[in-house]
Specification:
The protein is an alpha/beta fold. Helices cover about 55% and strands about 10% of the residues. Helix 4 packs antiparallel against helix 5 and helix 7 packs antiparallel against helix 8.
Length: about 150
């Protein structure tokens, strides 16, 4: 399975030293150049492939900038152009747009839950990562979502 991932999940996973989850859960992980520009000092591991868009895809992104960031748009366009259905996005508007484009979004928490389902993380390690993201790194999760995550890890 291949994933095209945006800045937010990369940044959050790096904050809790969990970028390796991408390697352990996906055969290939791609990210476009705009995402690399957005992540600042986050060092991407070698297994994450920086993949440019086609000229047509780049032109589409330039014309579509507005309520979504360049990185989010590039993730969706790259996934669509390469026939990849799964995109790593946290932003709600971006996730909705991805769904409209026929893509399946998965966020940071979804990636942690997937790693648990696949046996890459124990329930305790997965919950610890979620708690740290919320408590220390500014990831907002509603109380209902937190309860759903806790229940999924039981």
């Amino acid at each position: 399975m291949t994933l095209v991932i945006n800045a937010s999940p990369l940044i959050f996973l790096s904050k809790v030293d969990r970028l390796f989850l991408l390697r352990d859960c996906f055969e290939v992980t791609l990210t476009p150049p705009a995402v690399v520009a957005e992540i600042g000092t986050v060092r991407l591991p070698a297994f994450i492939q920086i993949t440019p868009l086609s000229e047509i895809g780049s032109a589409f992104v330039r014309g579509a900038l507005g309520s979504l960031h360049a990185g989010e748009l590039e993730v969706m366009v790259l996934a669509r152009d390469l026939g990849i259905g799964l995109v790593g996005l946290d932003d709600l508007l971006a996730r909705r747009k991805a769904q409209q484009m026929g893509l399946q979004p998965i966020g940071t928490i979804g990636l942690i839950l997937l790693a648990h389902e696949r046996g890459v993380l124990t329930a305790a390690d997965a919950w610890s990562s979620v708690e740290e993201l919320v408590r220390l790194h500014g990831l907002y999760l509603s109380p209902r979502i937190l309860e759903n995550v806790r229940a999924a890890l039981q």
